[in-house]
Amino acid sequence: MAASDMQEVPFVKQLAANDRPTRDAAVSSLRTFLSGRRQLSSLDLLKLWKGLFFCVWMSDRPRTQQRLIVDLAGLVEVLPDQNALPFLEAFWTTIAREWTGIDALRMDKFLLLVRSYLRASFCYLAERNWDVKTVEDYANILSAIPLSIADAKIPNGLRYHVIDIFVDELDASDQPRKSTIDLGLVLRPLRELASKSPTKSVRLRVKEALADERLIDWNEKTRGDIGVVEPDVGEVDEWNGFE
After folding, report:
1. Contact residues for 148 (Cβ-Cβ < 8 A; gap 6+)
2. Residue in 75, 84, 81, 82 with CA at minimum distance from that of residue 51
3. Which residues are CB-neighbours of 234 under 8 A, at least 6 positions away?
4. Is residue 209 within 8 Å of 191, Cβ to Cβ?
5. Cα dihedral sign for 102, 105, 109, 114?
6. Considering the entire predicted model, what is its pTM?
7. By the 8 A CB rule, do 149 and 141 touch?
């Protein structure tokens, strides 16, 4: 489907409507639309996510927001495999681009959106038995966008949020601990940030996340096996001014 065709799909424009019934109907139509599509271009998906972003932006009242976010996160489960990771990449690209423009009154619902999508993405991987190639491809997306080491355009606020919720949502997606998850591969974006980020506060935040006791549970792994990094006492005590 060409990008111009995507713009002509009626419900795409309705995603940012002011009234809830119209938005809800548009999300329902979108599930049907996405589940039947064989392939969508990256431009199609970015245009779609622009509409979805403002759908959340316009949503008011906590219950309405929560319901909408749950519905949007549920889109991942209906996507054909060839569209799932590109759809997630378009999500992260859109969130990173728009993050600094989110005002304080709207930030909570976008924090929830990010949390919900991180969990949905891990659940997608879990449903595919943590296929190594799929996990690696998604890890590359995380490393390139929300957990990028060097891209100055990625807001640290988004980085911090993803770091803080990473283990929570991974834990929620694999509660039985019976999977064949390659935890080292899943944690690779965090481990790279912990060792290579030029920002000390980011390195410390990641090391705290990687010290989470829950990371020992998977497949009886030890900290060394999965690359868990203990906070460095010397680095914590050191202060070189504000970054």
Report:
1. 154, 159
2. 75
3. none
4. no
5. positive
6. 0.86
7. no
Q: Which two tokens stand for residue 31?
A: 């599930």
Structure-block tokens of residue 77: 């489960």
Side chain identity, residue 40: L
Amino acid present at 196 = K
Report CA-CA distances (Å) from 137 to 8, 106, 125, 153, 168: 31, 31, 11, 22, 21
Q: Give me the helix-helix angle, 188-196 and 156-173, nearest 10°.
A: 150
Q: How many residues does the chain have?
A: 243
Sequence-distant (≥ 6) Cβ neighbours of residue 137 within 8 angstroms: 85
Q: Average pLDDT for consecutive 10-residue bins of the chain (243 residues)?
A: 50 71 84 84 91 87 87 94 96 97 96 98 95 97 96 94 97 80 94 94 95 79 53 45 37
Spatial neighbors of 95 by CB under 8 A, at least 6 apart, are: 53, 110, 113, 114, 146, 158
pLDDT at 5: 52
How far is CA 26 from each of CA 17, 72, 102, 179, 199, rounded to the nearest angstrom? 9, 11, 23, 36, 41
Question: For the stretch 120-141, what's the b/e string if a residue is b when 16 or more beta carbons lie within 10 angstroms of its beta carbon?
Answer: bbbbbbbeeebeeebbebbbeb
Cα 25 from Cα 12, distance rounded (Å):
11
Q: What is the pLDDT of residue 222?
A: 47
